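Example 117.
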Amino acid sequence: MTSVALPEPNQAQLAVYTVAAILIAAILVVAIAARSRRLLSGYRFGPDVVVRCRDGHLFTTTWIPMASVKSIRLGPLVRYQYCPVGQHMALVTLMKDSDLTPSERLAARRFHDGGVP
Ligand SMILES: [Zn+2]
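Predicted structure in complex with zinc ion:
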């Protein structure tokens, strides 16, 4: 068995590689944060947020990012959970308040699925 000896990088090359890796990581973190901020802008989180199920039912729920007990998170804006309007399990989507009409907001407030996220 033969082995090929690779040349050892010197200290200056290691420093350049380290700085380049740190810069690339920082750029990725900033890009991901900016994309997340853009994606989630206009949405409200916490208690009593309006969601719409796949069948079009509107209701309010508690939506806390990265926390869910009664639902399965399928991304930052979609969950699989119980819909109290249709009394079924469904995909529900978080709604922007600006996308709702006053009558839709009123209809959504008639049904709440509880205070547990
Ligand atoms: Zn429904």
